[in-house]
Amino acid sequence: MPITDPEKKRIAQQARLVMKICFSCGARNDINATRCRKCRNPFMRLKNRNLGIKK
Ligand SMILES: [Zn+2]
């Protein structure tokens, strides 16, 4: 089912692409997370991709 509302689509893409990646184990974490949910490592990098990349 395609999403027709452009605003909702933008929010959905944001939620999918903006996250944090743990340096230690590579797990994906919430953007608001301060520690990795898997190994409790506080060192995480941002995974920020530009929106609008679509094939
Ligand atoms: Zn981790």
Question: How would you characterize this protein structure?
Answer:
This protein has 55 residues and is of the alpha+beta class. The protein has a domain at 18-49. It has one helix spanning 6-17; strands spanning 19-22, 28-29, 44-47. It has a 3-stranded antiparallel beta sheet with strand order 2-1-3. The two termini are 18 Å apart. The structure holds zinc ion.
Secondary-structure blueprint:
Blueprint: H1 6-17, E1 19-22, E2 28-29, E3 44-47
Antiparallel strand pairs: 1-2, 1-3
Quick overview of this protein structure:
The protein has a domain at 18-49.
Provide the gyration radius in Å. Answer: 14 Å
Largest sheet: 3 strands, antiparallel
> What level of helicity do the residues show?
10-25%
Q: What does the average pLDDT come to?
A: 85
The small molecules bound here are: zinc ion
- Helix-strand topology string: HEEE
Low-confidence stretches: none
Structural class: alpha+beta
Number of strands: 3
Overall geometry? elongated
Query: Widest sheet: strand order?
Result: 2-1-3
* Count of separate DSSP helical elements: 1
First-residue to last-residue Cα separation: 18 Å
Provide the β-strand percentage band.
15-25%
